[in-house]
Amino acid sequence: MLLLARLFEGPNNGMAYAVAPLEDKYKVIPTRDPIADARALKARGEEVLILYSLSTPTFVEHRREVAEVASRFPVAAGGPHAAGDPITLAKLGVKYVVVGDGEAALPAIVERELGLRDELPPNTVVIEDGRVKTGRRFYVELVYKTYSEALSIYPPIEIMRSCNYRCAFCQTWTQGPVRYRLEDNVVALAKVYVARGHGDIRFIAPVGFLYGSEDGKTPNVDALVSLLKAVREAGGWPYLGTFPSETRPETVTRDVLRAIKPYIANRRLSFGLQTASERLLKAMKRVHDVAAVEEAVRTAVSIGFRPVVDVIGGLPGEEEDVASTVKEMEKLISMGALIRMHYFIPLPGTPLWGRRPAPPHPLYGDFIKRHRKKVEGYWEEQIELSRKILKTYEELRAYLRTPLTTPNSSAS
Ligand code: SF4
């Protein structure tokens, strides 16, 4: 059995994670033309399984290809989009849709394709005999390697999976119980990364400063320092609290920053305000107020960090709150922060899926123009992406004759 890993433009980190636990046992071949490559391999008598790792932007861009490939060859698809909307992918012909930890699902999928097991693979959705079937849920410990030698991809090291918060625009918390990678395992991986020339060690964590937290909400300063120190001793140069291990404002405390500053390479810290409307913060289940973000900015600046504050424009139902959010962003800039401006992207699998974004408000555009040097992000691109997702799902609704997965209600 050969595994054809479909790579796209960009880092392909999800695919590296997917094949890492398999590549010692099965041959993994990268492909950018899965039909031609699978056809050539089949002609040589090889059995193939084609793998996709799909974010929602990748899905809307390549969904026709996915359906076309899945109509000819067995396909297993995972990634956040698969977890968020498995039914549409299964209806498009994907044979195995991975909705949970891929480390448990993919080896079982391969065994099933080889005829070595009948049982449905764990964490997997299939349509068989016209019925949707789901394998049992199984949560793994974070013990698997995080890089792929077959694909030569060394992604950031995932140190924490899932989240104890429940923000309405986010899908991360649906990944089951919060788990942390043990320090020894992180260090062993860091040594490999350093030896292969990847000495800048970035981490993946839903909330960077909550690594090792006992309740998933209170920073564990000892665990943070111990991890960072050990990575430094392994020859790595760790980054924490910045993409892709952004943190939450309540975790940006003097204790945490003073303790970790000697060990981390970054002086930028990213955390979210999202909106300055207390009403919307509650509706989004953010569990912090605007004052917590101001406090975090003050603390970060006083200890020599540059805070980068995430804000989402276009949240469903935000119209009356735009002016106050813009005013707050100006205040944060005057306190020394940068703003990372996002436009709301409807993502399957989140509580806000099904809600239409509020139209891009001109006050945001004016703000971005006024503060060009202090505002980051992909505002225009995300407006476009948001529209594309809605359009794609309108088309899918017609094509699949199902209203189930279409964002169709208006903002309230
Ligand atoms: S936005 Fe951050 S804090 Fe909220 S659920 Fe997602 S990962 Fe957790």
Give an account of the 3D structure.
The chain has 412 residues and is of the alpha/beta class. The chain folds into 3 domains: 2-134, 3-Layer(aba) Sandwich (Rossmann fold), CATH 3.40.50.280; 156-264, 2-Layer Sandwich (Transcription Regulator spoIIAA); 267-412, Transcription Regulator spoIIAA (2-Layer Sandwich). Helices cover 37% and strands 17% of the residues. The protein is built from 14 helices and 16 strands. The strands form 4 sheets. A 7-stranded mixed beta sheet has the order 2-1-3-4-5-6-7, with helices on both faces. Strand 3 (48-53), helix 3 (56-70) and strand 4 form a beta-alpha-beta unit. The termini are far apart. Residues 406-412 have low confidence and may be disordered. The structure holds iron/sulfur cluster. Iron/sulfur cluster is lined by residues 163, 165-167, 170, 172-173, 206-207, 248. Iron/sulfur cluster binds next to loops.
